[in-house]
Amino acid sequence: MNRVSSRPPSRRDEARALFRNAILHAAEVVFAERGFHGARIQDIAAHAGTAVGTVYNHFDDKDEVLAALLEARSEEMLAQFAPAGGDPRAFEARLTARVARLLAYVRQHREFFAIASEHGLFAGSASPGAPPASRRLRRVEKFRALFRTLVDEGIGADELEPLAGDTLARFLGGTLRAFILSSFTDGEVDPSRQARIVVDLFLHGAARRRARRAR
Amino acid sequence: MNRVSSRPPSRRDEARALFRNAILHAAEVVFAERGFHGARIQDIAAHAGTAVGTVYNHFDDKDEVLAALLEARSEEMLAQFAPAGGDPRAFEARLTARVARLLAYVRQHREFFAIASEHGLFAGSASPGAPPASRRLRRVEKFRALFRTLVDEGIGADELEPLAGDTLARFLGGTLRAFILSSFTDGEVDPSRQARIVVDLFLHGAARRRARRAR
Amino acid sequence: MNRVSSRPPSRRDEARALFRNAILHAAEVVFAERGFHGARIQDIAAHAGTAVGTVYNHFDDKDEVLAALLEARSEEMLAQFAPAGGDPRAFEARLTARVARLLAYVRQHREFFAIASEHGLFAGSASPGAPPASRRLRRVEKFRALFRTLVDEGIGADELEPLAGDTLARFLGGTLRAFILSSFTDGEVDPSRQARIVVDLFLHGAARRRARRAR
Amino acid sequence: MNRVSSRPPSRRDEARALFRNAILHAAEVVFAERGFHGARIQDIAAHAGTAVGTVYNHFDDKDEVLAALLEARSEEMLAQFAPAGGDPRAFEARLTARVARLLAYVRQHREFFAIASEHGLFAGSASPGAPPASRRLRRVEKFRALFRTLVDEGIGADELEPLAGDTLARFLGGTLRAFILSSFTDGEVDPSRQARIVVDLFLHGAARRRARRAR
DNA sequence: TATGAATGAGCATTCATTCAT
DNA sequence: CATGAATGAATGCTCATTCAT
Predict the structure, then answer these.
(1) Considering the entire predicted model, what is its pTM?
(2) Other CB atoms within 10 Å distance of the CB of residue A192
(3) Is residue A28 very low, low, confident or very high in pLDDT (cuts 50, 70, 90)?
């Protein structure tokens, strides 16, 4: 995840990181407020308490700022969704826990994810007119890969229907996205409760559970 | 939807509509190619074979062009998804038919929906920096309302779990979106087949169907 | 010289040319005042009484403005230096007349030629950091070609030493340039008088004319 | 020329001179490659293997770097052109020797002189938008003064036509410049041979040497 | 109404220069 | 003195919009 470095961060490195993070945080706020195209580098710099030029000392251009921000948040988001090692609970319970963590994290950065979702964070579609896609796709692919792993694991454990290809991964992604986005509009909702609903729908669908055993 | 008019379209009205449609088609192509912000009014005009000024004779501004385009395509899309009157089949079969029509329609306009989805067509999130939202939300709301109606009907018929609020509507929307977007990347897939998968997942989820009765 | 056109200039064409010329004249003034890099497009536009955008409607970028200006003035300058058809006078007299016309023309645009000479108008050297050279060289080549023609003609008429290559053309160019540039600094000097000096030096050199017959 | 100093250069002074020269050499390369305006202080520093700040420890600003470079090269160039003390040969032979040395020196620094000549090294014209001119003119004046001295000496020795003012000095400068610049484009040419041609043209002109005595 | 050139506010980006370390 | 990141004024260029023809 992090670039491996043989030496401890010097004071200078720390200073660099400080500026870089200040700018990324500022960008998160400003992008969320005005959207990518509405955000002026000057605004970001002002929010970060730096000069315009400083932004360009840390990022090649505006696109790069967005890219870095998406990269950082994705990484954090993926970390939340990663399985907790050695969770002894059953499949559904473990999945629910992971989804709950994901939803909780997203809630922290809700404004940001509103734009992020429009710049291909969950995409599946290539947002046109955007950077060479390569970087973006790599990010999206990480999610898909994670979903895929999860789904394959579930299939292996005979917990999920063995559907071909990315079908289930997409289904999971779409379901998550729908509830992530709605959590932006809704007032405070308990992530655990919502995670239970999401996982339940993902696993058992919306159909009326008639004479079925207690789930 | 259309302004109600008491008189039949004159030749002049027809000429107007011709230009208007040419521009909308051009906009669809150019937006899809370059994204909203990357598309210049001049490009759209060129594609439409008109002058820039003509675009402004038909639309107030650039946002209006996108709005009108989204409006038109949404309307058509909604029409596809509308229930076929007096379909005697069971709930699942009817739903599958509607989804199949929807998927088939989207396939026709796939490039366009790539942007559309980034401008809140399915959103649920307010894309910041975008037109006054009011117009956009109205459009999104139509979908949500349609999903809601469908879901409520399903609940009423005791076919769907009676979950509170928009939960199921969102779930349906998210599931649909996931498969619509993926249909952009995938090669040719039969809409009917895909519709069956979508509806099946929506209704019965991804969990392994163990000793359950044949559905 | 001018692009051949099958139709007479419409009123619209005339309007275009008006703007274009206004901009070129403005550029001449501003470039002369502040140098190429010191000249802001905005200044040029202001001097021309147009908006900034208008400059860009007529020229691709700042370089293009300079290029067009150099092109125009070179063309005019070449026209001045062109031989007057059917001049019955002797070689030296004819050459003097041409040089006189050239000096007179340059005097009209003296401020401009001050920069022009720094942007390769007479160059022989490729000014580094400048536009792809191709255009510039073409211009410079025209002069060299003209000098070359003149010189070859002189050699053919047994009036000039038959030195190899471009030697004499360069010599002529260098001599002219020296006196053109000095005419920027000097007060009013009669072009005819100066032309006589230039041609005399070019033909007979600076050495003391001892027992030589009257030239 | 150099600030007069009463004490021998200490080790510290030597270190200073080392940096200073490294920077000047770097500047020569970078200016030649990209032109004055295209050259960034950062590039020069990088080429010199120093930090940006170091450049500013040795020169007040960018203009100063160019000025110092021009100054240094001019000085060296003047030194080459200076008469060799007590040369017993005739005027023409001595002049040829000096010109040959000059051409040989310029050949060493050909890339540099390409820009130098655009920044008024030989100019006679004030390049607008450039440093206060005063410094530049001083440099140019040195050349002119040298040419003037040479020319006056020649006139005094009854070797050159006694033309008024700077006429002959200019003629000499222009002739030299033409051949210096052309030496940038041409492949290897023997400086001595070229010097002979230059001096011959300067002294005797381009006219056919008819019944004249052997020169 | 169609046309398309003119308009000019707006913004990303550059780079000479400073200064704390 | 050397260093190199921070600074921010400066400017080329874009493009939505207007309007005279």
Answers:
(1) 0.85
(2) 14
(3) very high
Element of type H or E holding C116:
helix C110-116
Place of tokens 């509009």: A185
Q: Which nucleotide is nearest to D54 (CA to C1')?
A: F2
pLDDT of residue B178: 87
Chain B partners within 8 Å of A179 (Cβ): 170-171, 174
Q: How many Cβ atoms from other residues are within 10 Å of residue C83's Cβ?
A: 14
Closest Cα partner for C114 from C172, C176, C43, C185?
A: C185
For residues D118 and D129, the answer to whether their CB atoms sit within 8 Å is no
B69-214 CATH pick, 1.10.357.10, 1.10.8.60, 3.90.470.20, 1.20.58.220 = 1.10.357.10
CA separation for the pair B166, B147 (Å, rounded): 9
Residue in chain C nearest D112 by alpha carbon: C128
Number of CB atoms found within 10 A of residue A193's CB: 11
| Amino acid in position C46 | A
Q: Which tokens in the block code for residue C71?
A: 């092109």
If you search the block for the tokens 């200078």, which residue do you land on?
Answer: A12
**C190-202 residue pLDDT tens:** 889 999 999 999 9
Partner chains of D (3+ C-beta pairs under 8 Å) = C
Q: How many CB pairs under 8 A join C and D?
A: 156
Instruction: Classify domain C8-59 at the CATH topology level.
Output: Arc Repressor Mutant, subunit A (1.10.10)
Contact assignment for C175 to D178 by CB distance below 8 Å: yes
* % of chain C surpassing 90 pLDDT: 42
